[in-house]
Structure formats: structure tokens, C-alpha cells
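Sample entry (532 residues):
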Amino acid sequence: MKEWIANIFRHPDEQRFPIVWSSDQRAIYDFLAQWSDETSVLPYTAQMLPDEPAWQEVEETVRWSPGALDGVFSHHMANDGDQEKAAQVTQAIIRVLRRSSSKNMQAFYQLVKQDTPLGFIDDLLKMIGSSQAIDARRLRALVLFLVTQAPDRHVVKLAMALLAFFPYQQSVNILQTLGCHDEFTLYAVVAMRAILPPEEFALVWLALAKRTAGWGRIHLIERLPETLDQTIRQWLLREGYKNDVMVEYTALHCAEYGLLHEALQGEVDAELLKGAAEILLGMIHGEPGPGISHYAFAAQACERYLAHIVPGAAADLLHYKVAGEIGRLLDKDSFASEAETERLGTLCAQIRALPEWPALIEAGLHDDDGMIFHIALELYREKGGDPWPAIYQRHREKPENGLWYQLMQTDNPDYIAQVIALAESELDLDAIGSGPQKFPGMGPRYQQHSALNFVLQDLNRFPGQGWILIRTGLKSPVTRNRHMALNALAAWPQDLLPADAVVIVAEAKSREPEKELQDRLAQLLGQLVEKY
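Predicted structure, serialized as C-alpha cells:
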């Protein structure tokens, strides 16, 4: 391997490779290079890559968020490698390097572009590294061509992985530009670890970690530098654990490598205490992460954390919640010794009994911070209160916050009538009821459909209410809207059915594109006809 790499010249072969994609397709590298000088997370406009199909072409499919496909594959699916695919790709590369014809390039490109390379990339790297049939200079030229010019993400990922063979600053620069997008972070961090010495890798790692927020952040936390300085450890505990997927994925790594139990010794500030609370909560919840029983210093960290809790503001409701979660966990998890369990139980009880909490919970129901508000809702209900009036008031003041789910969390039919009236006045029901399609209804353009769904999914508990919403749901292009509307209508007794129920259901059945819903509508229609 070392001899093979040593044969690489500083400058790649100037040979051109044929372009086998449409000339109007934009290179992913060129697209992301617009933000290469930034230091923060990519803006929303950068999240959708140029190779994303137009909305109208993929309405019937579920979109993966950036990096989610590789993230789910690497965390939740067995991966024994795919040597056959790796061998096919290796041979396709060899053919392109020997004769870079359009035919050979097209065959290679189509082989690679369809699926993520994650399942075969390790085997491919071994085969490429041990092959005597590959000229290193030609390979570097091909890799640079693909990584900077290709418009398809899976081809770019493959090329990024192959950059690990070429330990130059040019490679690092390219990997940094692409790696700031969660779709490519995994490939960037693995390749840069192979290229850079530990000290340099740590610096690049931290810069990239600050630029990612989703699956990319998770992949980085799981691939920490070998040597961590105090800057990185503190960042892990204050910011690094946060991600847009689930804190449970990163909590244990950040607690272990951030030395949470040591950081909680002595004085702590509000930011660190909040980080500790959210990390502990993530480990307590466990799945899909390892859970708190895998943290060797769990009891010590919990005890030191609890010792710092003094209620003073609504923001401290997070600590009240975590103290309760720790107390409940003591009854079912043996993460602490008997003596530690007794001390922790006493601390949790003392903290929860402090007289300041009820007023802070009440204040939290009116706090502008969404996280504090939702914690206050949970705690208010835990204490037997009904927060619905506060939810209703908040929605009327700020309808953009989307509290439809919370508004439906009541057994009071009078409250539900008010929610229905809100939905009928605030939602564009004509636009929502545009006709049945096979659309999953994901993304910003379906916010109103999602709002309707939150109402419909609980209307089966209130038969006789919400006929206009149910009728709209049956005509929605979003499949789950129609399912929820049907569930609600099926709960209505005969004496409450509106006069046009049979006509509406018959029309819905005649237009329904989904076989399962067709069958459900036919069954309900038969029941309605019998009743009439």
C-alpha cells in the first residue's frame, strides 16, 4: 500500500474523462462551494442538493433527510459488506482507467449512482489498495474529476472515500467543502482521519462538527479525534450533543469523552448545567442510543448534577424534569450501587419538593421559549392540571407555532368544538381537499395537511363533531389524512351521521387510488347503506 501511494505524483494526470451526465446537471461540489468559507451550519436553501428530483416527480415517495439513509443503514441494519458489488465497481474503475471511453465511463457511472456505497465501500477500498492493475496517478485524476464534477450524490460519496488514498491539502479542502452537508459528513470524516495526523484532524474535526446539525453531527461525535483537548471536551458538553435527529444517539459519547462527571465538580454555569441535563435525559431515554447503564460514571454524574439544582427561573423546569426522570429510573435500572441509589433518591425527592416549582411551572405555560413551554405542559399534566386554556391562548396569539396536536390532548368535547372552529377558520380546506393522491405529505408545503391530521387523528374520540374536517380529509392528496378521516367517521353512530354521508363516502371510494383505502371505504359504505 505504501509503495502504491508513494508512486502518486503531486499533480494528477491531466487526461480528460468523458462527461456521461446531462450538461444541465449542476456539480454537487460546485453547489456546496458557495458556502465553503462559512463557519456555521448550512442554510436551509443548501439542504436540498441539485440531484433531488422535482417535487412533482416524487410525491409518492418518502424523502430521506440529509444523511438519514446512510445513518439508518449504519445504525440499524446489519452490514456484512458486499464483496460482489465491490468487485464489480473495482473492475469498472480499472476499465475506465485503461480506456476512458464514454461506454466504459457510462457503465461505471450507472453502476455507482443508483445506491449508497456504504455497504461495499470498505471492501472496495481494500481491493483498490491491493490491486496491481491500477495506476495511482490515473486513479487520482478520475477521483478528482468525479468528486468535483459529478452531479449525483452516491458517485460523489464514492469519490470522497477514495480521496483517502491521496493525502494532500487539496483532498482535505474538497472533503471539508462537501462534508459540511450532512449527506456527505460520514465520508468526509473517515477520509480525513486517514489523511491527517491526529493534531490536524482534531482541528478540522471540530470545525466540521460546528457546521453540521443532523446525521453529520452524529457521525462526527461517533468518530472523535484520538486526543481531545479541553476545548473539544467542553464543546461536547455544551453544544456537541445537540442534533436535529435524536440526542439519544450522541448523549453517551459526549458524556464519556467530555468527562461529564469531572466537569460537574465545583462551580458550573447555566449552559453547562443545561447540557448535563439534556445529556443525562438522553441517556435515561436510551434507545436508539446505548442508555445510561453503559456510562461507567452515571451515578457519580447524576449525584453531582443534582447537587447543583436550585430553582430560580422557568428555564430550570428542565432540571425539575430530569430530577424526576432520575428518580423514576432508580426503581427499574441498576446503574447505581445500593448506597448511591439511596443518596440519589433522597436528592431527587428533596429537589422535587422545593416550594418554588409550582409557580415556575405556571410561568412556563406562558414562556416564549418553546422548550420551556412544552416541559411546563408535561409537568402541569403530571400534577393533575389541565393546561388546555393556556395552549389555546398561545395558539391564538402565535398560530405559526403549530400547537394542533397539543390542542387535541383533551377529553372535553367543548374544547374540541373550539379546536374544530379554529381549524375551519385557519386552514385552507379547499386547498387541502384538492383530491386524493398517493402523497406522503412530508415537508414545509404540507404544513396545513399535517395540522389537519393532528385534529383528525383524535376525532374518533368525539363522534358527531368535525364533519367538515372529515369531509375535507377524505379528499386530501395526503394518504394519512384520508386514513384518519375514515377512522373518525367510522366511530359515528347512525343517529349522528349527516345526510350527505353516503354520497360523500361513495364519491371518495370512486376516486380513491389506494387499494387499502378503497377496501375500507367499500366496507364503511356497505355499513352506511345498511343503516339507512
